[in-house]
Amino acid sequence: MLVAVDCIIFGFDGKELKILLVQRHLEPELGKWSLMGGFVQPEENLKQAAARVLTLLTGLTNVYMEELLSFSEPNRDPVERTLSVAYFAFIDINKYEQQLSTEYHAEWFPLANFPKLIFDHNIMVQKAKARVQYKAAFHPILFELLPAKFTLPQLQSLYQGVYDVTMDKGNFSRKVLSTGLLVKQAEKDKASSKKGAYYYKLDKRKYNANFHAVLNIIPNPDTLYI
Amino acid sequence: MLVAVDCIIFGFDGKELKILLVQRHLEPELGKWSLMGGFVQPEENLKQAAARVLTLLTGLTNVYMEELLSFSEPNRDPVERTLSVAYFAFIDINKYEQQLSTEYHAEWFPLANFPKLIFDHNIMVQKAKARVQYKAAFHPILFELLPAKFTLPQLQSLYQGVYDVTMDKGNFSRKVLSTGLLVKQAEKDKASSKKGAYYYKLDKRKYNANFHAVLNIIPNPDTLYI
């Protein structure tokens, strides 16, 4: 059996939650949109294969990455039976764009609206999104997607993108500040509104210690069990 | 690459948390203790393969089972490169023992004290235990290991086995009853003590709705992040 990895790469540009897709450069399904993936090489384990694929595409190393699930329906690849183990990764899009590679015809799409993908890749994205919703309900992992300094409207957009909901601005600010995880900065972001929005930074010490702090931010966490 | 599944099968006999191991019947490592596993067949996906392996060994179907992780170090199997995807399963040992199969030389061992296993199987058990600790901190999954009627001392033994801690009896009872998930029965179990211990049943409706109810039972949940 062939063994491959596929990467569901999430990014946030300050406004929208996005995924990074590539245009497939081989048959079958040449030219169709796809997750970035590759076959596992003799000298590497699967996590190393996924990290290699991610670096090839983005130039980035040391990215937050986690194993999702295996995908193994006998006919999922029409050419030859291929098991794929999917990994999901979180990228700060602004960092990524400094090292854009055009070789793979990569493009960021809004998670809310992206093309039909080859094989079972749409199911992979759906499962990855569910896993992120689940983990982010209990742990502040979404901060991996943000730059060091961010505003509350940016953070709210990110949560809205992950959970497919619209949140009340006042409510969200109150909940998120009550976690005690954020440190207000003196500067404001004045690009997005006339009045401006204060920047915040994550308190890394509390981030590591404050296990339940994000629990209250999420609407209807009882629907997330996976 | 060969592709296999391995099953980490947890059971609880009312006193101790255990795992089900088999004595390996082929080379290499003939006669050594091992997780139950098998190669994936052409017509099945990996979850079906794991379910087949579990049924072969225990006779049980419809067992709680979940994909853990893939194990893919290039030299993990000395004969030929083999990727293994590990699944963990929860079994009520009493149900299992009605259908004991001797063909595989299977034996239950206490999770606190079991033999060294072949290949990377000890790491699989360790990772499975960490995943169970993590999930059980947020969800009442441990009830999958119990019979329909159980006592509070049994439930406490189970939690102690999963988290490697000794809990205060009064504290544990108070916390677990405050979840509102348990329904007290009229009967007592008189086998374990002179005074006897009331049986409880899980309220399945609340089990499905009451997402955070088990959170307070676990000591130091902040150490469980995986």
Offer a quick outline of the entry:
2 copies of one chain form a homodimer. Chain A has 226 residues and is an alpha+beta fold. The first copy, chain A, is built from 6 helices and 10 strands.
Would you identify the CATH architecture of the largest domain in chain A? Alpha-Beta Complex
Segments of chain A where pLDDT lies below 50 for 5+ residues? Answer: none
Span between N and C termini of chain A? 28 Å
Note the run of SSEs of chain A as H and E: EEEEHEEHEHEHHEEH
C-alpha geometry of chain A? elongated
For this entry, give a set of tags.
seven-stranded mixed beta sheet; Arc Repressor Mutant, subunit A; homodimer; Nucleoside Triphosphate Pyrophosphohydrolase; three-stranded antiparallel beta sheet; alpha+beta; 226 residues; 28% strand
What does this protein look like?
2 copies of one chain form a homodimer. Chain A has helices at 46-58, 93-97, 121-138, 152-163, 169-178, 204-209, and strands at residues 2-12, 17-23, 33-34, 36-39, 64-71, 82-92, 106-110, 150-151, 182-189, 197-202. Chain A is an alpha+beta fold. In chain A, strands 1, 2, 3, 4, 5, 6 and 7 form a 7-stranded mixed β-sheet that branches. In chain A, strands 8-10-9 form a 3-stranded antiparallel β-sheet. Chain A has 2 domains: 2-136, Nucleoside Triphosphate Pyrophosphohydrolase, CATH 3.90.79.10; 149-223, Winged helix-like DNA-binding domain superfamily/Winged helix DNA-binding domain (Arc Repressor Mutant, subunit A). The first copy, chain A, is elongated and about 55 Å long. The model of chain A has no long low-confidence stretch (mean pLDDT 88). The first copy, chain A, has 6 helices and 10 strands; from the N terminus they run ββββαββαβαβααββα. At the A-B interface, strand 5 of A face strand 5 of B.
